[in-house]
Design a protein that fits this description.
Layout lengths: L1 E3 L13 E4 L7 H13 L5 E7 L2 H5 L11 H10 L4 E6 L2 H4 L3 H12 L4 E4 L13 H10 L3 E4 L4 E2 L2 E2 L2 H9 L3 H8 L4 E5 L6 H4 L5 E4 L9 E8 L5 E9 L11 E6 L10 E12 L6 H22 L1
Parallel strand pairs: 1-4, 2-3, 2-5, 3-4, 5-6
Antiparallel strand pairs: 7-8, 9-14, 10-13, 11-12, 11-14, 12-13
Pfam families: FAD_syn, Flavokinase
Family: Belongs to the ribF family.
Enzyme class: transferase
């Protein structure tokens, strides 16, 4: 897999791919359906993906809370797992946002990327003010000798699979349902940072990981598994929120207690997968009550993970 981040300097060897268009946030089952449909349409061509960084919504609405299901490096990893050989990660900035639909097709897809075939969903819109329609795309690509496959969305009883639908499930506290649409548990990836060490004083040391650009799921306590860089998958319990009993600060964080593990994790990059919301975040009457509740949370998490992971 090759990641290209400068669309104006694509080597000739990367030309000639069949590419899927989209943001691919989460690389969920709907995205997998799109990629598989493209490969079925053009199995003779290298499989590629054209995506954007940052997400256009992040660019146009920087004041909004983070929305990302996954960070770019993780997205590239999962696209590669789906057989994508060429990832064209287009920088989405002011200049790019003002490109017309014609410029996107002619200058980017045709001249710079040299694509031979394109696939997208029926609602794909592009160019300045999203003026480019599927009909326009089909017309221009045909004139340039480039094929197009419009792939109907993957749907279930609730409608089309989408990143926005998965975000809502996480914000409503249903990580197990989000996992069904992702094809895997949703996880937060990040480096372990130093906290205030209160978890250790309470008898439950935690690995603190900033949410960063990840979407904030429902605040509360979760049964989790933690993927260690050495390949181990360690069960645990985690709190996501502002810790109202200890700290009334405004910054949410993830604090994960790894079961039966006592090692220095500072600086390690962990992936913390959410499996089940055990309870919502709430305030307790002092540290003793909090400590007792954490012990109960840990017990519930062990039981939940024993039956579902």
């Amino acid at each position: 897999m090759t990641l290209h981040e400068d669309w104006a300097a694509i080597p000739q060897g990367a030309h000639g791919a069949a590419v899927a268009l989209g943001n691919f946030d989460g690389v969920h089952l709907g995205h997998v359906h799109l990629l598989k449909s493209l490969h079925a349409a053009r199995p003779d061509l290298p499989l590629g993906a054209v995506t954007f960084e940052p997400h256009p919504r992040e660019f146009f609405r920087p004041q909004d809370p983070p929305i990302r299901l996954m960070l770019p490096a993780i997205r590239a990893r999962f696209l590669h797992e789906q057989g994508v050989k060429q990832i064209f990660q287009l920088p989405f900035d002011a200049d790019f946002s003002h490109r017309s639909p014609e410029q996107f097709v002619e200058e980017v897809l045709h001249r710079a990327l040299g694509v031979q075939h394109v696939a997208c969903g029926p609602d794909f819109a592009f160019g300045h003010r999203r003026a480019g329609s599927i009909d326009f795309l089909a017309h221009r690509l045909e004139a340039l000798g480039i094929g197009l496959t419009v792939v109907p969305p993957l749907t279930d009883i609730s409608g089309p699979f989408s990143s926005s639908r998965i975000r809502r499930l996480l914000q409503e506290g249903y990580p197990e349902r989000a996992a069904e649409e992702l094809g895997r548990p949703w996880f937060i990836a990040g480096a372990v940072t130093h906290g205030d060490k209160r978890g250790r004083l309470l008898g439950f040391p935690t690995a603190n990981i900033p949410l960063g650009r990840h979407i904030e799921p429902a605040r509360g306590v979760y049964a989790v598994t933690v993927h260690h860089p050495d390949g181990r998958m360690i069960p645990g319990v985690a709190n996501i929120g502002r810790r109202p009993t200890i700290n009334d600060g405004q910054e949410s964080r993830l604090e994960a207690h790894l079961f039966d593990t006592n090692e220095d994790l500072y600086g390690q990059t962990l992936e913390v997968s959410l499996h089940r919301l055990l309870r919502e975040e709430r305030r307790f009457d002092g540290l003793d009550a909090l400590k007792a509740q954490i012990a109960e949370d840990a017990s519930q998490a062990r039981a939940a993970l024993g039956s579902s992971v």
